[in-house]
Amino acid sequence: MKHLDIYDVLNDKSLLGKKVTVCGWVRTFRDSAQVAFLELADGTSFARLQIVVDKSKLTLDPECAKNGASVCVKGEVVKAFKGEGAELNAEEITLLGKCPPEYPIQKKRTTLEFLRGIPHLRLRTNTFTAVFRVRSVAAQAIHRYFHEHRYYYVNTPIITASDCEGAGEMFRVTTHGYQAKASSEAEYYKNDFFGQKAGLSVSGQLEGEVAATAFSKIYTFGPSFRAENSNTTRHLAEFWHIEPEVAFAELPDIMEIAEDMLKYVIKAVMDECPDEMNFFDSFMEKGLKEKLHNVVNSKFGVIDYTDAVEMLKKANAQFVYPVEWGCDLQTEHEKYLTEVVFKKPLFVINYPKQIKSFYMKQNADGKTVAATDLLVPGIGEIIGCSEREADLEKLVSAMKARGMDMQSYKQYLDLRVFGSVPHSGFGLGFERFVMYVTGMENIRDVTLFPRSVNNIM
Ligand code: ATP
Ligand code: MN
What is the pTM of this model? Predict the structure, then answer.
């Protein structure tokens, strides 16, 4: 159908006085003696287009006035009665699809929780139009950032035989039926599709390192899968993961890259999504725009893990989990540090080696690794980052200490045999980033079809 985006009709001043055709879904209908008003949304803009119907000239099919009906409207673009924008004086309104009154998107019932039950229809609301506009703009900005800095965009495998140890539980990939019997685990997988145990990747890092030790600067942007049984507002079984890997970068270098990239993307979202950000600021998180403005214009905090533990022990706060040197920080601790103490994004650096992964660079103190988590107010961790161990002997000893199978990491170890270089990388959870910039509080509300424990609607 030849038609224009509502975005263009609202924003392109050269269309004033012209005849155009638009299509969309009816959001509201108001009637009076001489005129009727339809508000039309097509998803291309957060603002809707007002359609003005002069009843002396046009008889409106009552089906076209129903909430949720899809229509096509021809008319003349005129300056809006109120405000800056444009509206459309209708000359012809055609019904495309009727919408019966049981349409579940009604003004009074739309809580986010209710909408989670109708993932196929909830996208037609203002909230989800705004969330997914921001998500899309952020994804484009991430690609643009890396492209402008001459990173290669690489695609690492989704099906993998290595499990990036420590990152999370893996989903199995198998073609065996439920009744398959075998005498041992090895025997069972020997007859499976790949002839060995395989699963969905929890991270593209190991393969990312392969690419970075050839191209210097790479990033991945794809799905990761974690079979974690954590039913929280921040975990999904399937999430999108941005993982840059940079050769010749040490921990401070990669932290600088992470900070620069986040600021770039936040700025792009604020510049390109003003209506959406105003909406989130008013209805999801008061002060959101000011918060993000401050993030873009100030340095992120940095604290050593050891100092953070001391600070938490002295904190005047009630924690469910006690803090001791050597413990993994819980979300409550992360939130305290970033929300109460620093009130801005915070890198916690140099974690104890026993709570972190085998591949992280061992620090000279023999106790900690060159790793950092970036914590943000409202969420906790959004980035996990480290310098990778480039020393073959140290890497092997860390793997032995964890009882890992060396044979399946042969390629990974080879990177330390043939021209090993210092290198670092990080993993940013895309949904957590979208939560942070929109103020949405549940990760299920920034994902089209969220997958989590007992939920695959
Ligand atoms: P957490 O401690 O919050 O479970 P993690 O330490 O397991 O996260 P990493 O393995 O460091 O996470 O993954 C890098 C990033 O990927 C995290 O900082 C987070 O933003 C994101 N992430 C990890 N697991 C999930 C998940 N299940 N759902 C959504 N995002 C995730
Ligand atoms: Mn982590």
Answer: 0.96
